[in-house]
Amino acid sequence: MLAARRAGAPHRSRGDEPLAAHRQQRLISDLGVELREDDDGRWPRIRVGRSRPGFLHPIGRGEIVEVLTFFGPLARYGLRSIELRQSVGEESGSLTLSRLLVPGRIVLYEQTQPPWLFRGELSQESKARLERAGAAIESEPALTRVEWPGRSLADFMLFDGLMHEIGHHLIQHHKGKRLARVMRTSDHERRAEQFAVACRRAWVRRETPA
Amino acid sequence: MTVNTRLLGDGVENPANARALLDAAAMFGIECHFRDTRGLEAQWDSRRGGRLPLVEPHTSIASLVPLVAVENMTGAVPVYDAPRPRDGATIVVGNERLGIRGDLLRLADQCVEIPTASRGVNTLNVASAAAVALFYLLAAARRPMRQWPQPERRRPAVLLVAPTDHVEAGSAIRTAAAFGWRSVGLDDRHAVWFGVSRAARTEGRAAARSHRNATRILPMQAQGLLGFKRIVVAGAGIDGRRISDVDLAGGRDTLLVVPDEEGMAEVDWGSLGGRLDFARIELPATTFPYRYRLVASIVLAEASRQIGRPAVAGRPARRRGLTYESALEVAAAGGGELVGPAELRDY
Description:
Strand content of chain B: 15-25%
Order of helices and strands of chain B: EHEHEEEHEHEEHEHEEEEEHEEEH
CATH class of the domain at 39-114 and 153-207 in chain A: Alpha Beta
Radius of gyration of chain B: 20 Å
Largest interface: A-B, 43 and 33 residues
Number of strands of chain A: 9
Number of strands of chain B: 17
Shape of chain A: globular
Strand order of the largest sheet of chain A: 1-3-5-4
Helix content of chain B: 10-25%
Number of helices of chain B: 8
Oligomer: heterodimer
Structural class of chain B: alpha/beta
Helix content of chain A: 40-55%
């Protein structure tokens, strides 16, 4: 049946197939609620680089393993490596949290020790992301100070960094075209963000059972 | 210093630039002359400073040699480590748009260039270029521009403080853009930039604006905590160490402050937070008419020299393949004001 449908519409994107959309939908909803017990899937290699003086890696190997264990083998399917790396050479106009190198390599960058001081104002989008992660933001005319109470910075890196990139990875991976851009970047970002938000919600529910 | 050196403006057409060139020469205690091939004398107003010093129309070009041409061209050596001009040399800068005419260029014994780092704005205002060239040819110690693996990581933030004139501020911003700064802080306490009515300029800019290479002007105030680990205040009358001995390439945690020393009231630099350093441009002349764009250009040129250039010039950037990243935009997208290269070239 699948072959017949493909033959009927040979130029149709595989990403538009009902099966692919269904898988993607199931993936997001499943990852939002399920704690997987059958954890014998393949694990990505986790490399931990040393951070520079004045910087830190908000999460370590333990937290990465914990969160990947929680979300199960489906979340790490196709992932090759997760690397904690120094942020040397990154753009000075933005603060890079993480990067997905397609296919399957995730880099999480070191961050400056809190509190974070930004010159000028943060964009509304960035403010919203930080506040969602639990940061306390104080804006002065020339300076924005971001405080990270408790474990909030680690959670920020876990979900706005790691799980956000895993969201990108899964979108790429489940389309089948693993080296080609499978949708517009803005849509890619939006869906990865939705995925990260769903993951954060599931994680919070797990930590505070009803 | 080479006392018999002189500055020659070849075909300069803007009288305001001619006046600024006279001031640049005065900073270094040398004479400035003009070879008028584009009607400068007709536009010159004696209120700008007496008679325009012209080379005689029948003066043989040969009498001007040895010539040092300041021109960005193939074969030119960076001005930072160019040899000192010979006694009696003439340092030539050219027309604002067209540069030095071919007859002088052919006779030049030496051609020096001011290395720039921007694809959008690759030249300085003619008077700013003259000041930078004179500083490195006559006043500063010869120190080459070094190569670094990632020079952009060494680039400090720049804050221009209290310019008193719109054109001087614009020329300083143009210099910053040419040396590779994509955003510049501006303490506009005299309301010469953000405060003026610029409807006409905005109208002209709308068509010419290139967002790709635009420079962002961020309104900032030189007071209160600014969030930098180190602040360097640099200028001609600043009481501090020689500028070449001060590290200006401290990266994003360093703020390089260039105050207009004429328009600046008392500023409590200590209130800006961070470690404070003062850098002074050593000039041969003790008294000279102060001009902000000239001083700012020399400070920014020295910072650019210290930032350096990429270790492997000309190698194409490594292709990274398909990537996605999660990042925070540090400055609000709508903050400040974007100025395109086309407008900066007018300063």
